[in-house]
Amino acid sequence: MPQSKKLRAGVIGLRMGRAHVQAYRQHPRIELAAICDVDPKRLEEVKSAYEVPLSFVDAGEMFRRAKLDLVSVCTPNAWHAPLTVAALRAGIHTLCTKPMATRCQDARRMIRAAERSRKTLMIGFQLPMTRMASAIRKMIDSGRLGKVYFVHAVYLRNHCELGPGFFSRKNAGGGPLIDLGVHLIDFTLWLLGDPRVTRVLGSTYDHLMRQSGEGRDVEDLARTHLRLAGGATLQIEVSFMMHRPPGETRCVSLYGTEGSVSFDPWGTEAIYCSPRLKNSPKTIPLPQESRGQDVSVNHFVKCLLKGKKPVASPARGYRVLQILETAYRSARAERELPLPKSRV
Ligand SMILES: NC(=O)c1ccc[n+]([C@@H]2O[C@H](COP(=O)([O-])OP(=O)(O)OC[C@H]3O[C@@H](n4cnc5c(N)ncnc54)[C@H](O)[C@@H]3O)[C@@H](O)[C@H]2O)c1
Fold first, then answer.
1. Which of 20, 97, 167, 298 to probe ligand 1 with, by most ligand atoms within 8 A of CB?
2. Gap from CA of 168 to ligand 1 centroid (Å)
3. CATH number of the domain to which 134 belongs
4. pLDDT tens across 132-143, in order?
5. Both 92 and 149 in a single domain?
6. Which one of 11, 65, 69, 262 is CB 3.0 to 4.6 Å from 253, fit for a cystine?
7. Based on the domain organization, do 83 and 211 belong to the same domain?
8. What tens digit of pLDDT does each residue of 244-269 get?
9. Whole domain around residue 15: which residue ranges?
10. 189 in a domain, yes or no?
11. Which DSSP string corresponds to 302-342?
12. How far is it, in rounded angstroms, from Cα 344 to Cα 341?
């Protein structure tokens, strides 16, 4: 790709997607050519705030008219698959935010569309692309924790302000497990070097969700236990609402035979414990950097310019979705289930 040529980018869905708009606007190799949202008021507001030349209420029209090289799909979950498939079929490289889709069968269609179009498809799992992730991974690989045998990851909210689509299974595919759990599952498996997941036990609860409003049919709390090849286990707890102190708790803890490390993946420090330190914990500063949408956008553009494959590949997105589907099935069946063999 010639050094001077700018790539033409578009963004669909302009709530969280505003962060993609901002990141593209700041990128020296990108021309933010077009935006799309079904809400004309939001569309107009973002168009004038960021001086975007073209705006559309219909994504298909944007794909036909805006001559895009790449696009970010930042709509509610149920729209990820249809818009991504349409973008790839129109020959446009696509960054689809997480979760990849609401069902594995839709994710498979997305993968096939990417293969047929020979365009890049990336999923918006930004955590493994950060320096924070490299620092923790280095610690694990150096043996400071010994053999890691248990991982505990939580993202618990007592209450959350989200668009109504997040509380409908039809729009979102599920509740906090598909919204928050996706990040934790992808990130912790990446930290462990992507071991095979053998069995999944899921439990979901919806007592508070049902009390909170009409038409809300997702879980409010989910607990997922994964058995990994090699014997380690991974426990994830995520909630949208719970009777607990205000605010949210985010923490990933990895326990090994020689020590442990605990940290907030969006935070500034990690706590290392080891008998070598006579069990007095040591605080380790984590790199100060963004862990937001600009990380995904910059990685995506870099991969396109250098012809590289993104870390957050469609295969990763599909694997997480397979785990989520199995966890939801396990919760309904009230027993542990094997993870089906991958059938992309
Ligand atoms: N990677 C991350 O860390 C991260 C962070 C936040 C949100 N997300 C994901 O981003 C997505 C959007 O989240 P949000 O909070 O902005 O949701 P939201 O429901 O609040 O807003 C979605 C926006 O998309 C628009 N929209 C809906 N359907 C559309 C369509 N068919 N075509 C064009 N526009 C459409 C809506 O009008 C709205 O402006 C979700 O999938 C969420 O999981 C990812």
1. 97
2. 14
3. 3.30.360.10
4. 999 999 999 999
5. no
6. 262
7. no
8. 998 899 999 999 999 999 999 999 99
9. 7-125+293-312
10. yes
11. HHHHHTPPPSS-HHHHHHHHHHHHHHHHHHHHTS-EEPPPP
12. 9
